[in-house]
């Protein structure tokens, strides 16, 4: 008996295949030395931004709510894991053991905060949810920028005022130094690990979308009242999605923090959340593959075209506005769909185009 | 005495938030959208007035008028270009577009005016008042901010409740389709709302820059978001609510800065927002809206 492969499964496996191919291509370039040091430095950030974009796409594309707290969750993941790594880097010297633990720590802390903020907030919808997640991101950034943590033989010391306020013993060590952030984080993020985590993220995302839970979440997005009336627990499904988004964003934060020797909370500002949103919107809301492509292209492009760098942010803004108007206005969208169909009937080869338009819904 | 001083400063900042919050509340009440770009219109207003006053050497009053006119036009243009095509789209698309517009204004200002912060010269020339033998000083800017905000709230309430255009705005906010059937031009009413809101943003920009004279491309972003918090706290859609919420947020921010931690003042304001939304999502003066299927 021939087993039929569903279109979604095929789609997900094509994405996995493309990711593995891209990984092999980059590895070949790396090993033959055909890659500039600047590009090398961008490899981990590309993976980090792709993970962030895929995770935000779960909330924006699948749940249909806007979260502007992506940078906040990333910040929690980055800080908690960096604290963990700094504390254990003398006891566990093997990065292959230490880093997976750090990833779990970062992801779990971010997920806990995601659920904590999600429980009260997810009763709200639309604009309120967006502004609260934005507020939450700002709170996280401000608290971490004002936080001083040190430890000595007597245990942990925490203060919100200054380094002197900690009253550390002579053998004490600073973990978080207020606005100066964390330094001394072991440089555990390698491209290989980041790529593997990206692949795992994508597998999680596709399986989530195609699961019973994912379908429930999408039905809530399409018609909340109808979904509620067939007995779906709205809050539960929203929390699962929100928690998963936070977890993955936290993991991206872990990769990010272990890529730099020192880290400041000011990096995780509003602009970071917007940047991730731009990736999601440009890649197509709801399209996981698109998110990764957009994140990679938009991370590489400004570095390759230095002259454009000045206009980068302006381009992001225009991308947001134009994409939204073109995909959401019935007249303009109809125009594009009609012409795409004409184009296809002329050449009869590229079937991907109407699909891409559909995903933009 | 220090407490009184902080309280007065809080009232002053709060009055500015109130003027900004009015813009949010009007637009939210009528177009049912969160105009993220509102804060950045304040910044544009600040730059226009600054340019008119310092570069073109015009008188402060004329400069303010130019600023208001420029922001009003900007508000209408933003509405026509970015929001009107999305009238029937999902709130997610509208919100993302609004963020795009906000980002656009910020980065356009960065390209036009550069990164260097401008120092705004105060336009207020009201003498300061000393109380208790000079222990408490009320600055001219403070008096101006409070008076201007009260005047605006009173005028706006009168306009909305007692003129034909104002009542058209109320009708559109109640039910867009029914208002259209009654012969109200919904599009022009929404444009009028954006025009008023953006004009108010210019006034808020002048007040803000007179009290806090550093002008950069992100000057409006944070006050904009805090004013939205104020609008939510007061009850979104309510004009007196915006005033109450604005003053409360201003006082909370300044007292938090003085007595808890300067770095955490913003975090405290946002924590207030989260608390309000958990305890009473409709705000102090807001109406409960029943959901229709």
Count of alpha and pi helical runs of chain A = 14
How many helices of chain B does DSSP assign?
11
Shape of chain B: globular
Biggest beta sheet attributes of chain B: 2 strands, antiparallel
Give start-end ranges of low-pLDDT stretches of chain B: none
Strand fraction of chain A equals 5-15%
Largest interface chains and counts: A-B, 52 and 45 residues
Terminal Cα span of chain A: 37 Å
Secondary-structure content class of chain A: mainly alpha
Here the CATH topology of chain B equals: ABC transporter involved in vitamin B12 uptake, BtuC
Which bin fits the share of residues in helices of chain B?
over 70%
How would you describe what is shown here?
The complex is a heterodimer of chains A (361) and B (293). With 361 residues, chain A is mostly helical. Chain A is built from 14 helices and five strands. Chain A has a single domain (8-328), classed as Orthogonal Bundle (ABC transporter involved in vitamin B12 uptake, BtuC). A three-stranded antiparallel β-sheet of chain A has the order 2-1-3, with helices on one face. In chain A, strands 4-5 form a two-stranded antiparallel ribbon. Chain A starts with 6 loop residues before the first helix and ends with a helix. Mean pLDDT of chain A is 82; it is low at 351-361. Chain B has 293 residues and is mainly α. Chain B has a single domain (2-279), classed as Orthogonal Bundle (ABC transporter involved in vitamin B12 uptake, BtuC), CATH 1.10.3470. Helices cover 72% and strands 3% of the residues of chain B. Chain B is built from eleven helices and four strands. In chain B, the strands form two sheets. Chain B has a two-stranded antiparallel ribbon. A two-stranded antiparallel ribbon of chain B has the order 2-3. The N and C termini of chain B lie far apart (55 Å). At the A-B interface, helix 4, helix 5, helix 10, helix 12 and helix 13 of A face helix 4, helix 9 and helix 11 of B.
